[in-house]
Design brief:
transmembrane, transmembrane helix, globular
Length: 333
């Protein structure tokens, strides 16, 4: 058994689940400025109040797994992306505090609204920046980061930051369609298609820009057998958009969220294909960056125990708090 690939799969799954689960509740904060009424904002927050902190478990799992299984990759990425990652964590802290305090505040409620908006949008943006910087390539010499502190600040990484803001906003809007009703739900229906159009535009730009800024990714996309496997992806993206349009017109409540997940899964598949295990960093393979086999074996036993627990309580939380959320219902603790 190749433990290195097994650990890579676990970390990839953790990151995907984080993007899906924390993506829509970050998207709610991004949508806050378009819904200034406090009662609407209370209801929007109540749709994720029971589950939002559990969603961030997957971010912790991904970081801890990277540290345990790929310490060289962990230290390199952390050194290269120190500033955007710290700013992301600061935004998540402000957002988490606003979740707890906003429900009990009166005179300062508008300030905690701003903290929630800024924390959600900022955390999303810096996650996208980190992704773009990683795709740009992190310079490595003798197994150590050899770039500068602002190497992540490029036009491509700034755009991927904005693209992820659009993605999370779309996820949040589709989640709220499924969880609300009445006039508020109708307003979400009105903005979901413009967000879908923006999503399609960002997917197109990133898909064109990514191979142009990295020859290795261009070769993996176009000069390998993967090219024929990737050909259906644009068709599937357009199919998701068409089904999204039909779902909006028929006022289907759950299908828009499924289509938004389709965009995420297709984008994530493209990301995984872009990152070759034979050169996870310039001149460094996945196996070069891995911890010793004994360390991987020890930690994967812990992962095998803890993963079913996380999946179990996450599933239970969503099952218990399934259904619509209405005005006057509170799930704050």
């Amino acid at each position: 058994m190749d433990l290195t690939l097994a650990w890579a799969a676990i970390i990839a799954l953790g990151v995907l689940l984080y993007v899906v689960l924390d993506g829509f509740d970050l998207g709610i904060g991004i949508l806050f400025p378009f819904f200034p009424d406090q009662h609407d904002r209370d209801l929007m927050m109540n749709t994720v109040a029971p589950v939002w902190d559990g969603n961030e478990t997957w971010l912790v799992l991904g970081g801890a797994g990277l540290f345990a299984a790929f310490p060289m990759l962990y230290s390199t990425v952390l050194s290269a992306l120190y500033l955007p990652l710290v700013l992301m964590l600061v935004c998540l802290i402000f957002r988490g505090v606003s979740f707890e305090i906003r429900a009990k505040a009166s005179r300062t409620k508008h300030l905690w609204d701003l903290a929630f908006i800024g924390g959600s949008a900022g955390a999303t943006f810096f996650q996208g920046v980190a992704l773009g910087a990683f795709l740009n390539g992190i310079p490595v010499t003798d197994g150590r980061f050899s770039g500068d502190a602002f190497g992540w600040f490029t036009p491509f990484s700034m755009f991927t930051g904005l693209a992820l803001v659009v993605t999370y906003a779309l996820l949040g809007c589709c989640w709220l369609i499924a969880k609300t009703e009445g006039d508020l739900q109708r307003r979400f229906y009105r903005i979901v298609w413009p967000l879908t159009v923006l999503q399609l535009a960002t997917i197109a730009v990133v898909s064109i820009w990514t191979p142009l800024q990295d020859e290795g990714i261009a070769m993996r996309w176009f000069d390998s057998p993967l090219f024929f496997k990737l050909l259906p992806v644009p068709v599937l993206v357009l199919a998701c958009a068409w089904l999204m349009r039909r779902s909006i017109r028929s006022k289907h409540e759950k299908r828009p969220f499924v289509m938004a997940l389709g965009f995420v899964l297709l984008g994530y598949a493209g990301l995984v294909v872009s990152i070759s295990p034979h050169e996870i960093l310039p001149g460094v393979s996945l196996w070069d960056a891995a911890a010793p086999r004994s360390s991987q074996l020890f930690t994967i036993v812990g992962a095998a125990v803890i993963l079913p627990v996380i999946v179990g309580y996450t599933t239970l939380g969503y099952w218990i708090f399934r259904g619509k959320v209405r005005h006057g219902e509170h799930h704050y603790h």
